[in-house]
Amino acid sequence: MENKKLSIPKIIGVILPLVAAIVIFSLTIGRELYADRTQSIQSFVLIHFSGYLFFLLMPVEMAFVYYLSFFNAAQLIAIALLTATAAQIIDYFIGLSFSGKFIHYFVGEKRIRKAEKNIRKYGMLTVFIFNLFPLSSPIIALVAGMLKFRFRDFLIYSVAGLLIKYLVLSLIF
After folding, report:
1. Which end of the chain offers a freer environment for a tag, N or C, measured as fewer CB atoms within 10 Å?
2. How many CB atoms lie within 10 A of CB 11?
3. How far apart are CA 132 and CA 104, in angstroms?
4. Which pTM was predicted?
5. Which residues contact 36 (CB under 8 A, 6 or more apart)?
6. Which regions in the chain score pLDDT beneath 70?
7. Residue 134's CB: how many other CB atoms inside 10 A?
8. What's the CA gap between 84 and 164, in Å, rounded?
9. How far apart are CA 170 and CA 167, in angstroms?
10. Helix crossing, 109-122 with 100-107: angle to 10°?
């Protein structure tokens, strides 16, 4: 087994998104908790949108459940759908626009190959399933763009999976 060395750009590629996620949570939920205020819809929008960008993987489903105690479920589902869809559209077009080499370096060869294998094998069902469950759907959106899947199909399957996921979460919690 060869010894893998971490390069400075790879270390920065891991630390920078982690710091960004911590800052986002601190400036939203953290600040509101310390100020003894109820959570704002703006903080949910920021957290949820950021969590669906491929380079900032965050537990958006947990944030959704947390915010359910503060807001109407229908309102929160609508906002979750809008923010997740907007972020995944960005992910899709990044995959479509940037070179594969750049994306493979930034995201990681193993994750990209696994996502690519699933999409090639199961097609848009992969997009639907990854949006239905708390899986890495932003990476799937990125790879769907890289593979130049039809945007309309990608959007339909993404929104359908997200809608069902958030409806079920709101019914359970």
Report:
1. N
2. 10
3. 25
4. 0.78
5. none
6. 1-18, 21-22, 24-38, 99-102, 104-107
7. 14
8. 13
9. 5
10. 120
